[in-house]
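Would you be willing to look carefully at the protein I have copied below?

:::
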Amino acid sequence: MNSSIAQRRDGFDQWIHQVNRICGAFSAQTLGDEFSGHIREYQSGALKLSFVDACQARLYRTPKEVAASEGGKYFAVFQLAGSACMAQGDNRVSLCAGDITLIDASQPSDFTYHENSRQLSLILPHRLIEQSLRYTPVKCGHLIGAKSPIATLSHHLILDAARQTNLSQQESEATLDAVISLLRPAISQSEGVDDVHERIFRKTLGYIDEHIRSEDLCPELLAREVGVSMRGLYRMFARKGLVVARYIKNRRLDLCAESLRQSRTEQKLSALGYSWGFSDSSYFSTAFKSRFGISPGEYRKQYA
C-alpha cells in the first residue's frame, strides 16, 4: 500500500514538474487516490501547444505563481475528452468534449479535473490578440460551446495543425492568425461599444489606420481630428494600458513587418520604412529590431 502511494506521489511530482516546464509556474494538488497525469508538448515555428491529460487533480495560479511565470500570453483551452472546470476572476466554466475557453496567463486561474480529462492548450501571445481585437476587452473564463461553428472549426484547425511535423514560420503564424480570427467573435467583450469613451477610442484607431502612412500623424493632430483634448487623448489610451505615440509607432512597425512577410520584391528597406511614415531609416531599423528582435533585413530573409 505504501509502495502504491509512493508511486502515485512520484507520478504526480513528475507531472507537475513537466507542467511547470512547458506551461509556466503552477501549483497543484491531487483530489483523490486515483490521480493520473501526462503532458506532451508540440512546437512548430510560432505554434506552441501542449496535450494535457489529468484525472483527480487541481492546477492553479495565485499571484505568486503569476509573478514567477512568463506573462504576455493567453491559453486557448480546447477540451478534447472528459470534462474539467476552469475559473478565472468571477467566471467559472465547465468544459465537456468539444468546448473551448480562453484563460489569461497573466492573471490567477484555477483548473480542476475530477475525471479523465484531455485538453489541448494553445499559447496565444497577448500582442496577437490585442492586434486582432484592436484592444477591445477580452472575455476570459467564458464557455465557447462545442455545438457552435466557432468551436467546431477551431478544433478541426488546431488538431490538423498539430499533426503537421514541418510547418514553416510563415505557415505557423498564419495558423495562429486563423485560430484567433475564428475565436474573435466569442472572446471579444463588445458590451462597452455603446460607451462614449469606447466609441471615441474606436474612432481614433480608425483615424490612425487611415493616416498611418503620413509623417504628420502625431498625438496633437490626432486629438484635434477626433475632437478631444490632449489630456483626454492620453487618458483614453492609458485606460487601455497604451501610450499614444508608442501605439502609432508599433502599428507602423507591425504593418511594415506584414509587408515584409507578403512582399515578393526586393524593395529598399529605407523606402519601406518611409512608405509607412518613418522619415529616418536608422530610427526605423532600430525600432524594428527592438520590437521584433531582428533587423528588417533579417526579418525579410526569414520569410523569403
